[in-house]
Amino acid sequence: MPSPFPRLLKPLFLSTVISISSFCTAVYAQTKDEGNLQYIDPHIGNVGALLEPTRPTAHLPNQMIRMLPVRSDYIDDQISSFPLNVVSHRLGEVFSVKPDNKQLTAASWDERMAYDHDLEVTRPWYYSTYLIDKDITVEFTPGKKVGDYKFSFPAKSASKSILFGLYNDGVANFTFTSGNELTGFETYHDDIKVYVYGRFNAKGTPGIVKDKALVQQASVDGKDLKSYITFAADAPDVIEFKYAISYVSPQQAKQNFNDEFGSAGFEILKTAGKATWAKVVGQIETEGGTEAQRRSFYTALYRCNERMVDINEGGHYYSGYDKKIHDSNRPFYVDDWVWDTYLALHPLRTILNPKLESDMLNSYVNEYEQSGWMPTFPVLFGDNPCMNGFHSTVMFLDDYRKGIRGFDINKAYEGVLKNANEATMLPWENGPKCELDDFYHEKGYFPALKKGEKETVSLVHGFEKRQAVAVTLGGAYDDWAVGQLAGELKKTNDEQTFAKRALNYKNLWNNDKQMFIPKDKDGNWIDIDPKFDGGLGGREFYDENNGWTYLWQVQHDIPGLAGLMGGQDKFQARLDQLFRESLDRSKYQFWAKFPDATGLVGQFSMGNEPSFHIPYLYNFAGAPWKTQKRVRFLLDVWYKDNIFGIPGDEDGGGMSAFVVFSSMGFYPITPGKPVYTIGSPVFSKVTINLQNGKQFKLVANNCSVVNKYIQSAKFNGQVLNKPLFTHEQLMAGGTLELDMGPKPNKSWGI
C-alpha cells in the first residue's frame, strides 16, 4: 500500500544526496510514533473517479484558514500557486503566493512550478514541497486565522522574490511598508473584502507589474493586481512570511496576527496544530483491522473536521446574510452543504462534539434572522442555492431529538416552517415560492414536463431543470421533519398538517413499474426509462442519479416504502435486484449521462450521497446479514487507501462520515430518528471517548476480513436480537458486543 510519507528519494545530482537524504530522515522522524495521526493521508482520493477529487488541505479542525497547492489533481506535476486562504470548499481562494529565484518578468506570475510527488509532505497541520526547477522548498503551517509560509532558497541565491497575485476579479490592494510588512485586500464574490496583514523576517524591495513592466512601487490598487517583494543576496536563505486574514477589517487582520502569533514562530504553530489534531483523532480509538482500513478510517475522520468553519474574529464576524459586521462572543460558522452533510456528518458530530454542533445550529438560526430564510448551503457570502430540498430541517430535528440545545429552537422552527410553506422548492434557486410550489402544496407532487415539452416557468434553472421526482421525495422527508419537530414543540395543528404532507412520496409511486415515476400537471404518468431518461444527470425527473437510486429515498417511512413494494420479502428482493441490475448499456454511455453515479455495483451508486443508507435497508427487510455483507464489500471495494480511494465527490466530509460510521459498525439510517442501525465493524474494538466523560465501546469478538457476519449480540450485557440501538444508549456510555463469524447467522436481528 502507498505511504503518505516520502519514500527513498532519487537524488537529482550527486552533491545533493546527503542533504536530501537528511531531509527524508527528518520527515520520517516527525511522522513515526504519532498514534492515530500516522494513519492520516490527505492524498487519499486526490484523483476523482470522474468529477471532483479530494483536496489535501492543511488546516486546524473547523477553522477558517485552509491551504492546499493549486493544481488540477494529484497526477498534475505542476503547481500554479499557493493560496493564503481557501475561503470556501471548492468555491474559491484569496491571495496567491509563490517564490522565485530568477529574474522576474511580467510572465513570472503565470509560470507553473514543477514539483516531485515523493518530496511532498502533506499532514493536516503541515505542508511541504520541493520545487524542482527553482530548487526552492515551500513549507506551510496553519493557525485559526493565521498562516505561516517558509521559502527555503538555494544557498547564496542571487535572487529571492516572493510573488503575490489574486484569484478573484474584483478591486484589490497591496501595500508594502517598512520593507517587511504587507497589508491589503482582495474582493471575493463581488463585494466581500478579505483583508491581509503579514510580516517577513527580512526587509526587501517591493514592486508591482504595470503595463507588463516591473515597477518598484510600494502600493497599488485596482484589478488583476500583481506585486512582489525582492530580497537582497545577503538576506536569509529562508524567507518566512507570517500573515493573518480577516473578513472584518484591516485593523482586525492585524489584531488576529498579534493574537495568534505574539512571539510564536513556525515550529510553535506547527507543534500546536499537531497537538490539536492528535486530540481530535484520538477521540476514537480502534483495535484490530488492517493498516489499510485504519488509513481509510482516520483519513475520513480528518476530512470530517474540515467544515463548517468558524469565522468569528475576536468577538466580531462578517455576515454575508445581511452584509454587516456583528459583535458576538460565540462562534459563527459557515461553509456547509447540507444536501451532502445532513445524512452522516452532522449526526457524527452529535456524538463526537455536541457543543460544536450546537454552535453550528446557533449560526444557522442567526443566518435565518439576518437573511429571512433558513439556509441550506450556508457559505461566506450567504446561502448558496445548490441541489434541492430543505434538509437543514432534518438536521434541526435530528439534533434536537439527540439533546442538542444552546440555540433558539422556536426561532429555528419559525425558519424551517417558513421554508416549508413560503420558499420555492426548485433546485438551485432561493427565495419565494412560484406556481410549481403552489401546485405541490395543492396536489402533493411536483409536476414534470413531458418529453420534449418546453419549459414555461421562468424560475426553473436552465441546467438543473425541475427534478420533479427528487423534489417530491425530498420534500416529503423535509415535511415529515417539520411535523415531527412541531410535535416536539407541542404545535399540534402543524404536526397533523405535515404528517399528511410527509406521505406525498406515495403520489409518485407507480405500482406497475415498482418505481417512483414522474407525473405531469394533469396527473398523468410520464412514460420514461427510469434507468436512463431525464437528460444529463436525470435532472428533468431525478437528480444526479436515476430512478433506481431514488427508489429508496423514503428514509422517514421505511415500512411504508416496503408496503408499496408488497411487503418485506419483496422489499428484500428489490434490494437484491438493485445491486445486480444491469446498466443495459456500456459504462461510458451511462457515465456520459450520469457522471455523479460512480462506484457502481449493479444500479447502486456508492459515489453519491443519496445511496448511503441503501445497504442498511436490509436490516428492515428481514436480512441483516445482507447489510453486513454489502457494507463490508462496499468499504473494501470503493474506499481504498490510495489516490483513487473515494468513489465520488467527497464534498468536505459528506462521504467521509459514511466511512467513519460504517467502519465502526453502525449508521444513522434516518436522520431525525435518534436510532442507529448495525452493520459490520472492520475493527475488533472501537472506543469513542465522549465529551460527557463517558465511553461508548463496540467490541467485535473474532472480527477479521473474513469474519464479517454477526453471530450474536449483547448491549450492556443483555442479549440484543435486533440490529438497532439508540443515541441515548450510546451517549450513556453503553457497550455493544458482537460475536463475529465467517458465515451468516440468518436468524440474528430479524
From TrEMBL:
<dbReference type="GO" id="GO:0006516">
    <property type="term" value="P:glycoprotein catabolic process"/>
</dbReference>
<feature type="domain" description="Glycosyl hydrolase family 92">
    <location>
        <begin position="252"/>
        <end position="742"/>
    </location>
</feature>
<feature type="signal peptide">
    <location>
        <begin position="1"/>
        <end position="29"/>
    </location>
</feature>
<keyword id="KW-0378">Hydrolase</keyword>
<dbReference type="InterPro" id="IPR008928">
    <property type="entry name" value="6-hairpin_glycosidase_sf"/>
</dbReference>
<protein>
    <submittedName>
        <fullName>Glycoside hydrolase family 92 protein</fullName>
    </submittedName>
</protein>
<keyword id="KW-0106">Calcium</keyword>
<dbReference type="InterPro" id="IPR014718">
    <property type="entry name" value="GH-type_carb-bd"/>
</dbReference>
<dbReference type="GO" id="GO:0005829">
    <property type="term" value="C:cytosol"/>
</dbReference>
<feature type="domain" description="Glycosyl hydrolase family 92 N-terminal">
    <location>
        <begin position="39"/>
        <end position="246"/>
    </location>
</feature>
<dbReference type="InterPro" id="IPR041371">
    <property type="entry name" value="GH92_N"/>
</dbReference>
<dbReference type="InterPro" id="IPR012939">
    <property type="entry name" value="Glyco_hydro_92"/>
</dbReference>
<dbReference type="GO" id="GO:0005975">
    <property type="term" value="P:carbohydrate metabolic process"/>
</dbReference>
<comment type="subunit">
    <text>Monomer.</text>
</comment>
<dbReference type="Pfam" id="PF07971">
    <property type="entry name" value="Glyco_hydro_92"/>
</dbReference>
<dbReference type="InterPro" id="IPR050883">
    <property type="entry name" value="PNGase"/>
</dbReference>
<dbReference type="GO" id="GO:0000224">
    <property type="term" value="F:peptide-N4-(N-acetyl-beta-glucosaminyl)asparagine amidase activity"/>
</dbReference>
<dbReference type="Pfam" id="PF17678">
    <property type="entry name" value="Glyco_hydro_92N"/>
</dbReference>
<dbReference type="GO" id="GO:0030246">
    <property type="term" value="F:carbohydrate binding"/>
</dbReference>
<keyword id="KW-0732">Signal</keyword>
<dbReference type="InterPro" id="IPR005887">
    <property type="entry name" value="GH92_a_mannosidase_put"/>
</dbReference>
